Amino acid sequence: MTKPKGRREVESPLEMAERLSLPFLDNPSLLTRALTHTSYLNENEDATDDNERLEFLGDAVLDFVVGAWLFDHRPEMREGDLTRARSALVRTEQLAEFAREVDLGRAMRLGKGEQRTGGYNRNALLCATFEAVIGAIYLKADLEAVNTFFTPLLDEFANEIIDAPSVNDFKSRLQEWTQSNGMGIPHYEVVSETGPDHAKVFEVEVHLIGKIYGKGQGPSIRVAAQLAAKETMKMLGIL
């Protein structure tokens, strides 16, 4: 799927279906509903329903589709890692980015107030509309049609999103695990600092229930602590 370039132009639901090869060419009514925000419904007598129920359905469908994709493409991931990766892929900001990638804003039906305040590019509205479109595709066709539309986006962007530092916060993940397993909160101790000021190397140890676990070295205390937490997770068999 290629995002059209240049100035944004208003697009009808049928034009969107044609551009993205969506299964609504025979009847775009369900897609029209998916693109209709409640603000448009309140201002236009021709609109009969908004997209909130489709948004609810699409949210559930996306959870399943992304979970299945991760299960197939990341066999090395344990359950906790899969959960975190799925959360990263279906969070509001990321679904809004997927919506931008397919230029969904061109076809969104918003009330005049939302139009004036830039609703076409607001994360919350883009995310909700994207979920509603997924729900509409599922109802109109089936799960295979959802995969046909959405999987290319996952194939292109998922690995970059999953491997981002924000997802791989080993300190938070370690503490989450140790607290849930009755081991308390890990403590980090800087045990050495070497090298000149412009090229420092820090070494950090993880102390947990009175024992020293993983160690990590890095150009900053933060990096060294993350590596020490990662090593500790490996020692505990949770990574």
Short summary:
This protein is mainly alpha-helical and 239 residues long. It folds into 2 domains: 13-162, Orthogonal Bundle (Ribonuclease iii, N-terminal Endonuclease Domain, Chain A), CATH 1.10.1520.10; 170-235, Double Stranded RNA Binding Domain (2-Layer Sandwich), CATH 3.30.160. It has a 3-stranded antiparallel beta sheet, with helices on one face.
Summarize the structure in words.
With 239 residues, the chain is mostly helical. It has two domains: 13-162, Orthogonal Bundle (Ribonuclease iii, N-terminal Endonuclease Domain, Chain A); 170-235, Double Stranded RNA Binding Domain (2-Layer Sandwich), CATH 3.30.160. The protein has helices spanning 13-20, 29-34, 38-43, 52-73, 79-90, 92-101, 112-116, 123-140, 143-162, 170-180, 221-235; strands at residues 187-194, 201-208, 211-218. It has a three-stranded antiparallel sheet with strand order 1-2-3, with helices on one face. A hairpin with a 6-residue loop joins strand 1 and strand 2 (201-208). The longest helix is centred in the first third of the chain and has 22 residues, at 52-73. The radius of gyration is 23 Å and the shape is elongated. Residues 2-7 have low confidence and may be disordered.
